[in-house]
Amino acid sequence: MGGAKMIKCLVWDLDNTLWRGTLLEDGEVHLADEVRLTVIGLDQRGILQSIASRNDPNHAWSTLDRLGLTEYFILPRIGWGRKSDAIGEIIGELGFAEHSIAFIDDQPFERAEVAYFLPGVRCYAADQIPSLLELPEFSPPVVTADSRQRRMMYRARFRRDAEQASHQGPDEEFLKSLDMVMTIARARDQDLDRVEELTLRTSQMNATGIHYSAQTLRSFIADPDHEVLVVALSDKFGPHGAVGVILLERRPAALRIRLLATSCRTIAYGVGAALLRWIIEEARRAGVHVNADFRTTARNRMMEVAYRFAGLKVEECNCLSPAAPIEEVTHLHLVPTVQPPTSTLRIVAVDLAVSEA
Ligand SMILES: [Zn+2]
Fold first, then answer.
1. What distance in angstroms lies between residue 315's CA and the mean position of ligand 1's atoms?
2. What is the pLDDT of residue 203?
3. How far does the centroid of ligand 1 lie from the alpha carbon of residue 31, in Å?
């Protein structure tokens, strides 16, 4: 399994591939059970699916609707142009690398055309459908809660981006119009894979650049002096999924932020600043100071700005000792004051004062 580059999106041909028959000639088409199960199986693994088909768009889409399949496909390209153009557009909108895209078509000519213009795209013949779910490139090693809702996350993203592009006026007005809700919850065992993944791909917004494995995080969950929190964001368009992770340590006179990492995509939504304000407010309610580990990396300048902006700085205080020194890590400090509420998003958070039973 190891080496195989994962497919992130499979683009389907329709006639004699997804369904049996040619819509324009036969009128009636048939969907085989194994095809339906393949579509659903790929969807559950978090592999996106799209369409590149030569057909009348309305006719084809209403047929997909009758077969109960429309919800599984994003960015469909149904028309009379070249399939390589259609797939190129899909790749552009997703922002994926060519090699993470697959194309399945019964016609050797279509596969050859796509392979010629998009040499990275992996092409499959329609008779390979029964074995697709067994191929390593369609078998991600880990399926997380976010994998299962990936299609909805992308659909929400397309609608959100379209609205943002057409929005006139100040950004804050746009952010308020999204009705964002940020959920901060204690991480459970089943969250750890996506939390680990977040710490790996959030280098711009990682306060220490330290990556925590799922195993290390698991040991912190079991430790009453630590809190591992997972942050999710949703808005009126749908879920963003998990966007942040926080590792806190309860010290006798301080709440210590050992890790704060948020996804780069959500910087514009003010997630990092809102999380810092929430942590500071939690410390204030508990009557303790805030400590934060910070280590400058090549890419986390924005997180440094967020920490400074929240008022965290290098200063002497009794609450800081005895902290075990970590190489190159600076310990920032703050005496918390009442934090202004965040106007652009609503926070639904665990109460840190109440420990889990
Ligand atoms: Zn202090």
1. 9
2. 61
3. 66
Span(s) in the chain for CATH 3.40.630.30: 170-349
Which alpha helices (H) appear in the chain, and where do they start and end?
A: 23-26, 33-44, 57-66, 83-94, 108-117, 145-148, 150-166, 171-177, 192-200, 214-222, 271-286, 301-309
Domain spanning 170-349: CATH superfamily: Gcn5-related N-acetyltransferase (GNAT) (3.40.630.30)
What topology does CATH give the domain 9-141? Rossmann fold (3.40.50)
Q: Mind listing the pLDDT tens digit for each residue in 254-283?
A: 999 998 888 877 777 888 889 999 999 999
Q: What is the pTM of this model?
A: 0.79
Instruction: Flag the least confident range among 42-56, 61-75, 329-343.
Output: 329-343
Q: How far is the CA of 281 from the centre of ligand 1 (A)?
A: 15
In the reported structure, the alpha carbon of residue 254 is separated from the centroid of ligand 1 by a whole-number distance in angstroms of 7
Distance 241 CA to ligand 1 centre (A): 34
Q: Tell me how far the alpha carbon of residue 255 lies from the centroid of ligand 1, in angstroms.
A: 9
